[in-house]
Amino acid sequence: MTIPKTWRGLTLCLCVAWGLGGMQTARAQQGAVAGRVTDAAGEPLPGVNVALLETTYGAASAADGTWRIGAVPAGSYRIQASIVGFATEVRPVAVAAGETAQIDFVLESIAVEAREIVVTTTRRTEVANEIAASVSVLTAEDLVTRNALALDDALQYVPGVQLTGNEVNVRGSSGFSYNTGSRVLLLVDGMPMLSPDAERIPFDLIPVHQIERIEVLKGPGSALYGGGALGGIIHVVTKTYPDAPETYLEAYGGAYQPARRDVWRREWKASTDPRPLGGVALNHARPLGANTGLWTNVTYRYDAGYLNMDNARSFQGFSKFTWRTSPDSHINILAGASRETSDTFIYWNGARDALNPGSIEIGSAASSSGATDNRTQHFSLMPAYANALSARTLFQAKTRLLGVLIQPLDSEKKPKPVSSGTVGFRYGGEAQIDYEPAPGRYLIAGVSGDANVTNSSFTGDDAPSGQPEIAAFAQWEEAIGRVRLTGGLRFDSYRIHEGDALRKLSPRASAAIGFAEAWTLRLAYGEGFRAPSVLERFVESSDYLPVVSNPDLKPETSRSYELGVRGQPTLGGVPFLTLDAALFLSHYRELIEPTFAPERRSFRFVNFTKARIRGGELALRAYLRPLRAALYAGYTWLDAEDLETSEPLAFRSTHLLKAGGDFRIGPIECGADFRWASAPERVDSDFALFVPDAELSTPLQVLDARVGSSWRGVSATLHIRNALNYHYLSRPALLGAPRHAFLQISTRF
Amino acid sequence: MAAALLAACDQGFAPPDAPPTGAIMVDITYENYPEAWPESEDIYELLFVALRFVPEDTTDFLQLNRLVFSDRLQFHVAQQTVTLDSVAAGVYPYSGVAHKYGPELFDWRPIGLVEENGGVLVVSSGEITRVSMSADFLNPPPFPPPDAP
Questions:
Q1: Percentage of residues in chain A with pLDDT exceeding 90?
Q2: Nearest residue, CB atoms, A364 vs list B14, B117, B148
C-alpha cells in the first residue's frame, strides 16, 4: 500500500459519503424541538444533556435551563434529558415541518446517578445500565474537578485500571514491559489512534478540556475495533459546540515538595527546593453560522519534574469543527497539533540514588542512558461524516491521520536532524452502516483500512516502513423480551512483510438479561489480539537499553469470559446507589516482553509466555443529593498466573482499591480520591539484572485532596496530590510523584 | 484526625541503609599449563578484574571506581578459585584475568575472559555469583574488544 493509493481510497470513500448525503436533501422537511429543564422546585438546571435517541441530534441546557435542537427532520422521536443526580426522563415527541415542538422537563432528584450513555460496547449509543460489558465512564466534570492534566492522569481514577508508568493496565492485561505496544486500544470518537511507530497511546493527543467523556471498556474488544484491543479500550468522546458562545479560561500553578529522604537529597542538590509546575488553558466554543460551529483549545504546560533530568514544556492546540450539511447529516473535523520538549527519566541510578538517572554499559558500541531528551510533535486530523439515511439507517464514514515527529536534542537543547529521530504517520478510514430492521434488532457492519509509515533511527535497515491493515466487521443484536443477545465478528489482515500477511478472526458474543426493576445480568465472551509493532520487531538501538530486532514475533492473543450484574438496589423503595459486580477469566497467549539475550548482549522482544488472569470487581457509585455528595468506590481482585512457570505474572497487583467523593458544604466544595494497590507479587527479573534495585516494588497508597469555591463566576481550587507524601514506585526503577500542590483558577464566560 | 494524618505522612518506599553488595567466585583454569606460563619476573601483576563497562583501551583501567579486582592471583598453577567479597550489586559486562606484562602504567592485557551468560557477570544483593573461565598466556583474547553485535 502506498500513500497516494491510500489517499485515493479515502477520497473515494468520502465522495461516496457525500453522494449518500445528497440523496437526503429531497426530504429536508425540518422542524425544531426546544424547551426548558427545571428541578422539582422550579429552579433552572443548566448542563442537562437533551438528545433525540437513535439520532445524532442533541443539545445541552443553558444557564437558564433552556435548550433548543434545530434542523430536525419531521417525524416521531424519543427525546431524553439526563444529568447526574436526577432521574433521566424520556418522552415521545413529534416534530412537524416548519414548527418548533415545545418540551419542558421537570427532573426529579434521585439518590443515585443518572443513566450513563456509552457507545464503546456495541459501536452505537446505549444506556450503561443495560449493556453486556464492564464499562466505566469519566465525565467532563470528573476531569475538570480533578484538574486532570492529560488522559493518563484521568485514568488513574477509574476502578480496575492501573497505570504502571505510562502503560495502561486494565484488569491485569498489562504489567510493565519497556516499549512493548499498548495492550489497550485508544479510540477518539470511535477511531483507533495508537502511535504509528510503537503502537502506544499518545496521552497528550486530545486536551482534557475537549473531552466530553472517557469510556473504559474492560475486556477484549478486537471484534469491534481490531488489533490493540487485547485487554480493553479507552474511548475518548469529544465535545461539540454549544448553542451560545462560551469561553473557559484556566490557569494553575504549584510545586513539588522537596525530597524528604536525606540520601536522595545528597545526590541531587536541586531536590532540596520546591520544583514548579503550572499551565494555562483557553477554550472557546461557538456556533459559526446556522449549521456550523467550532470548539477550540490551546494549552501550555510546564513541569520542572521531581527527578533530575525529567521535565517537560508543552504547547497544544486542538479544534473540532462541526458542519450540519443537511437535516440528516453532519461532518465533524478534529484537528490538532502539539509540541513537547522534555527530558524524560527512564530508570534510576539505584534506590539510594533514586532521583538521578542511571546508565547501562554491557558492551554495545554506545552506553545506554537512563534519561533522554527529545522534542516530540504530534499532528492529527480526523474528519468524520454521519448521515441518517432513514429513521432506521445511519451511515458513518471516518478518516484519520496521526503524525509524530520525535527529534533528540543536542547538548545545546536544539533538535537533531530528523534522520536521528523518528518520523511516522498513521492514516486510515472506515465506513459503518447501522440498521434497525425492527425495534430491538440492530445490524452493524463496516470496513476499515489502516496503514502507517515510520522511519526511525531506532529500527534497522531491513525494517518495513509499516504494516498496513484491512478489516471487515459485522454485529447483530436482538432483543427478546428482557433478554438482549449480541454477536459480532471481525476479520483483520495485516501485511507484515511483502507477500506475508497476518490474518485474525475475532468473535464476540454476549447476553444482557434484565430482571427485577433496574437490574441487568450479563454474560460476555470476547477475543482480542495485538499485532507486534514494527518497532518491536525491528528495533536496533542502544540509546536507553541495548535492544536488537526479532522479526519473527507473533501476535499476542486473548480470550475473555465475564459474568456480571449491574443495577440499583433500593432502600424503602428508593434506589440509593448503582452497583456493578463482575467475575472475569482471561487467557493470554504469546505475550510479548523484552528479555535479555546473553549471546547478543542485548534485550530483544520475544513471545515469552501464556497467562491466565481471573478475578472479580465490585464498583459502587452514589449521588447523595440531600448531602450534595457524589461518592464512588471500586475494588478489583486479580489472580494472574504465568502458565509456563506457575508463578504470579509480573507487575500485577492482587488488590486494587479506588474510592473517593466530592462534597459541598455551603460555598465550599471539597473532594478526595484514594487509590491503593498491593505490591506486585513478582517483578521482572531481566531488567533488574542491569538496573540496580529494579527488582524492588512497593504498594501504592495515594490520596489526592482538593478544596475550592466559586465567586462571581471565578472558581479557585487548591489541589494536593499525594497528600500523604507516600513514597512509591510508579514502575520499576522510577519513583512516583511526591506530594505536590497547585492552585487552579478558572472562569467561564 | 490531623494527628493520624500527620503520622501517615512520608511512609512507603525507603532506600536501603547501605548499598547492596554480593560476591563473585571465579574458577579459573589456565590452558597449556605449565608451558604457557611466563617466568615470574615477566608477571608484574596478575589479577581477576570485573569492569562495569567494556573498555576501549588500557587507559580505561584507570577508572578504578568502575571496576573491582582480586588480590594477586597465584602464579604457575593449573587452576585457582578466587572470591571477591563486598562487590557492589550490578552488572559487570567485561571480566577476566588481567596480566601486567611490563613496568609501564598501561602494560596490561587480558589473558582470559568470562564467557558465560554472554560474558555478563550479574552480581545480586546478598548472593554469590559463581562462574568458570579459562585463561591462556599464549592465546589472549583480542584487546581492545570488538564491539558486541
A1: 36
A2: B148
User: What's the pLDDT tens digit per position in A684-718?
Assistant: 767 777 788 888 889 999 999 999 998 888 999 99
CA distance A531 to A539: 15
Q: Which residues neighbour A70 within 8 Å (Cβ) at sequence distance 6 or greater?
A: A32, A290
Q: Quick check: is B147 in a domain?
A: no
Q: A361 CB near a chain B CB, below 8 Å?
A: yes
Complex confidence, ipTM: 0.71
| A436: containing domain | 117-748
| pLDDT of A368 strictly over 60 | yes
In a domain, A112, yes or no: no
- A502 and A572 together in one domain: yes
Distance from CA of B119 to the nearest CA of A (A): 8
In this structure, are A534 and A445 located in the same domain? yes
Query: Is A730 exposed, middle or buried, given 0-12, 13-18 or 19+ CB atoms closer than 10 A?
Result: middle
Q: Cell 455551603 maps to which residue?
A: A666
CATH number for the domain spanning B93: value is: 2.60.40
**Helical residues (DSSP H) of A524-616, grouped into ranges:** 534-538
Domain-embedded: residue A84 = yes
Domain boundary residue among A84, A107, A130?
A: A107
Q: Confirm whether A537 is domain-assigned.
A: yes
Distance from C-alpha of A104 to C-alpha of A82, rounded to nearest angstrom: 13
CATH number at residue A443: 2.40.170.20
Interchain proximity B148–A699, CB inside 8 Å: no
User: What is the Cα–Cα distance from A638 to A175, expressed in whole angstroms?
Assistant: 12
CA dist list (Å): A732 to A225, A691, A693, A694:
31, 9, 9, 5
pLDDT higher for A88 or A64? A64
A-interface mutation test, from B5, B9, B10, most A Cβ less than 10 A away: B10
Distance from CA of A369 to the nearest CA of B (A): 13
